[in-house]
Amino acid sequence: MTRIFSGVKPTGHLTLGNYLGAIRQWADVDQHRADALFCVVDLHALTVEHDPGRVRRLSRQAATLLLASGLDPERCTVFVQSHVDEHARLSYLLECVASDGEMRRMIQYKEKSAVEQARGGSVRLSLLTYPVLMAADILAYGAGEVPVGDDQTQHVELTRDLAVRFNQRYGHTFAVPRATRPEVAARVMDLQDPASKMGKSHESGAGIIYLLDEPDVVRKKIMRAVTDSGSEVGYDRAARPGVSNLLEILAACEGGDPEGLSGAYASYGALKKDVADAVVELLRPVRERHQALVADSAYVGDVLRSGAERARGMARPTVDAAYRAMGL
Ligand code: ADP
């Protein structure tokens, strides 16, 4: 059975982008067809300035939301990265295989280090090496597939390169994974700034739908979404990013294709109202299950403990083999 690995970073509250670009697919499809691991990658949250208490709270919230979104601990492994030491152990070995140059070519590093510098902060070394830790996350489990949104495909390419290079130098140790992507809404854009993706770490939440937003907040954000000065609803990602983003969100919620849906609307107002209704309905069960799980935190704790134990059992033989292969 194919093994798949994917994760979310607890750097902010989870968004509609995380849900439509990743989590929904994990719950509806991936956990049923494969031996799947889903991880809250909290070590990655330390690569930028953070508040320790907030990271801890967000990790727990993200794990709870994964369960609320339908990940079933009987079918897949849900765990928190820092509970399994193998990630950090393997990351160091892979740092000895990766080169400084290939790290500096990563688009996310360029973008995120520029943001840190603009804030006047120093760029942490871990921000540069973060894709190596991500490679360790994937390779430790021998994952064959990594379902991710477009923004992560470069990191999966790097993971493949590192696996191949390690295997050539030290003998076959790692399976070489490939990225897979969901078909619709692979990239949900910010409602206020449709040129950039809806990302949970953005400063302002006005263009971001959080999974735990109250329904009236969701409606308000969608009704205020930036469109353009045209009057007819039409789908064109490049020329009309705002309205196209809304059409894609609607298509992702209800099925159908964004271009086809555009013909049904005479005004932006009518489109926005339908998008708001669709998103509120989509998120309703997730919010309700989240509430129930928060009230049963012992259950969530048990799930995460047994998830980490199972994950450790899978990762340890591979990481131990990598140690031996490298001469340790
Ligand atoms: P974020 O950018 O929100 O910090 P993560 O690194 O936690 O995202 O990614 C979790 C998953 O969600 C990844 O598979 C990522 O590709 C996906 N994802 C994040 N933002 C979006 C978005 N706006 N549209 C589609 N998918 C997204």
Automatic annotation (TrEMBL):
<feature type="binding site">
    <location>
        <begin position="17"/>
        <end position="18"/>
    </location>
    <ligand>
        <name>ATP</name>
    </ligand>
</feature>
<dbReference type="Pfam" id="PF00579">
    <property type="entry name" value="tRNA-synt_1b"/>
</dbReference>
<feature type="binding site">
    <location>
        <begin position="9"/>
        <end position="11"/>
    </location>
    <ligand>
        <name>ATP</name>
    </ligand>
</feature>
<keyword id="KW-0067">ATP-binding</keyword>
<dbReference type="InterPro" id="IPR002305">
    <property type="entry name" value="aa-tRNA-synth_Ic"/>
</dbReference>
<keyword id="KW-0547">Nucleotide-binding</keyword>
<feature type="binding site">
    <location>
        <begin position="197"/>
        <end position="201"/>
    </location>
    <ligand>
        <name>ATP</name>
    </ligand>
</feature>
<dbReference type="GO" id="GO:0004830">
    <property type="term" value="F:tryptophan-tRNA ligase activity"/>
</dbReference>
<dbReference type="InterPro" id="IPR024109">
    <property type="entry name" value="Trp-tRNA-ligase_bac-type"/>
</dbReference>
<protein>
    <recommendedName>
        <fullName>Tryptophan--tRNA ligase</fullName>
        <ecNumber>6.1.1.2</ecNumber>
    </recommendedName>
</protein>
<dbReference type="InterPro" id="IPR001412">
    <property type="entry name" value="aa-tRNA-synth_I_CS"/>
</dbReference>
<dbReference type="GO" id="GO:0005829">
    <property type="term" value="C:cytosol"/>
</dbReference>
<keyword id="KW-0030">Aminoacyl-tRNA synthetase</keyword>
<keyword id="KW-0963">Cytoplasm</keyword>
<comment type="subunit">
    <text>Homodimer.</text>
</comment>
<feature type="short sequence motif" description="'KMSKS' region">
    <location>
        <begin position="197"/>
        <end position="201"/>
    </location>
</feature>
<feature type="short sequence motif" description="'HIGH' region">
    <location>
        <begin position="10"/>
        <end position="18"/>
    </location>
</feature>
<feature type="binding site">
    <location>
        <position position="137"/>
    </location>
    <ligand>
        <name>L-tryptophan</name>
    </ligand>
</feature>
<dbReference type="InterPro" id="IPR014729">
    <property type="entry name" value="Rossmann-like_a/b/a_fold"/>
</dbReference>
<dbReference type="GO" id="GO:0006436">
    <property type="term" value="P:tryptophanyl-tRNA aminoacylation"/>
</dbReference>
<comment type="similarity">
    <text>Belongs to the class-I aminoacyl-tRNA synthetase family.</text>
</comment>
<keyword id="KW-0436">Ligase</keyword>
<dbReference type="InterPro" id="IPR002306">
    <property type="entry name" value="Trp-tRNA-ligase"/>
</dbReference>
<feature type="binding site">
    <location>
        <begin position="149"/>
        <end position="151"/>
    </location>
    <ligand>
        <name>ATP</name>
    </ligand>
</feature>
<comment type="function">
    <text>Catalyzes the attachment of tryptophan to tRNA(Trp).</text>
</comment>
<dbReference type="InterPro" id="IPR050203">
    <property type="entry name" value="Trp-tRNA_synthetase"/>
</dbReference>
<feature type="binding site">
    <location>
        <position position="188"/>
    </location>
    <ligand>
        <name>ATP</name>
    </ligand>
</feature>
<dbReference type="GO" id="GO:0005524">
    <property type="term" value="F:ATP binding"/>
</dbReference>
<keyword id="KW-0648">Protein biosynthesis</keyword>
